[in-house]
Amino acid sequence: MRLPNPAATLRRTSEFSLFSLSQSLLMRILKRLILVLLAAVVTGAGAVYGMSNSRMNAAVAVSDPAPSVTLDSLSVARGEYLVRAITKCVDCHGDDMGGKDFIDAGPVFAVRGPNLTKGAGGIGAELSDDDIVRSIRHGVGRDGRKLLFMPSMAWPDMADDDVAAIVAYVRSLTPVDRVMPPSEVRPVGRALYLAGQLPLYEAEEIDHDGPFNRMKPPAGPTAEYGRYLATIGGCTGCHGPGLSGGQVPGTPPELKPAANITPTGIGHWTEADFFRALREGKRPDGSTIDPFMPIAATKLMTDDDTRAIWNFLISVPRKEYGGR
Ligand code: HEC
Ligand code: HEC
Question: Half-sphere exposure (CA, 13 Å, Cβ side) for 121?
Fold first, then answer.
């Protein structure tokens, strides 16, 4: 089966994670894809099912041992901060990490963040530390299963102490009783996936053998530390590796392009302007930044971390808008 190549596809580039799209935007893109699929001649639904099953279930071998985890209150607090302000795990796993219906895109898929606690319906008791670390850094869960929609591309280089802190936080979660049905990839999603039009697993994009760069600069309001935060916090994922923004590759034109956050774009801002942008979602002229920019998380960042990212951004090379 061959599909026409639509102007708008969900094909991911190494620069961008589609999983950061808001649900309504994702739905709009999916509707286009469904039309493309319906316009194409679909043959052999059974073959699609079998072929997609074998690709979707192909196990991924990862040998990348987890660092040791300590359950002290400092690690737990650090983990909670990362999960809410930086890595945004709560967006998909729920505010209480007890599971959440992330998106139900009719014939395409239903994505549900599992309940990571030890309550009824939770998988917290089944997960080893290794499983949680592998899920984060590699997007690969128990038994080598590729995890649907886990946005791990930003995290292979997450430092040992940070990934261990997130594990500590997951371990300390108050049990939540919430039974979550597993995520499903439905027939249209399977056909699109096989046709290479719909990425489902970031695990397929990650080099699981490394090399990894997990040296974290000392925490503080420095450009070096800001670079680390901008990576695990996903700024480079949306604004591009060079941070110059522009239309996110492969997304339809009605989707808000990311802004240029190199000095070419925000060099005339003050640090206070930057704080206001990340905390209130307002530009210096008072206009509102599109909610595609995740202010709900950035507003939780500490002063030092916000300053670190600011110092990083004003230190990067100037770049014309849209060069990514
Ligand atoms: C964009 C949504 C999204 C975000 C953000 C996200 N996850 Fe997930 N995660 C999922 C989905 C969906 C699954 C279930 C995938 C499946 O069953 O194939 C999952 C599964 C998991 C699993 C289960 C692994 C297993 O063996 O079954 C763990 C652990 C996990 N995530 C931890 C995290 C942590 C920690 C973070 C933040 C650092 C995070 N996730 C961020 C969507 C997300
Ligand atoms: C999910 C994608 C996404 C992520 C993640 C993201 N941004 Fe954005 N950001 C955007 C988009 C899209 C805009 C443009 C919004 C608009 O035009 O109103 C934007 C706008 C901005 C602006 C306003 C710039 C201007 O001139 O209007 C700043 C500053 C900014 N982002 C900084 C950051 C930082 C720092 C991070 C990481 C902590 C980050 N962004 C993470 C998508 C994202």
Answer: 15
Rounded Cα gap, residues 275 and 308, in angstroms: 11
Percent of the chain at pLDDT exceeding 70: 86
Q: Please tell me the number of the ligand nearest to residue 168's CA.
A: 1
Judging by beta carbons within 10 Å of its beta carbon (0-12, 13-18, 19+), is residue 247 exposed, middle or buried? middle
End-to-end CA distance of the chain: 33
Q: Print burial letters for 283-317: b (CB count within 10 Å at least 16), e (below 16).
A: eeeeeeeeebbbbebbebbeeebbbbbbbbbbebe
Q: List the residue whose alpha carbon is closest to atom 33 of ligand 2.
A: 235
Q: Mind listing the pLDDT tens digit for each residue in 65-94?
A: 999 999 999 999 999 999 999 999 999 999
Give per-residue pLDDT as tens, 204-239: 999 999 999 999 999 999 999 999 999 999 999 889
Task: Verify whether ligand 1 is closer than 6 Å to residue 259 (CB atom).
Answer: no
Query: pLDDT tens for residues 255-267?
Result: 789 999 999 999 9
- Confirm or reject: Cβ of 17 under 6 Å from ligand 1: no
Residue whose entry in the numeric block shows the structure tokens 């967006």: 91
Measured in angstroms, how far is the CA atom of residue 61 from the centroid of ligand 1?
18
Non-local CB neighbours of 40 within 8 Å, separated by 6+ positions: 1, 2, 3, 4
Query: How far is the centre of ligand 1, averaged over its atoms, from the C-alpha of 96 (Å)?
Result: 14
Share of the chain above pLDDT 90, in %: 75
Give the residue whose CA is nearest to atom 6 of ligand 2.
Answer: 235
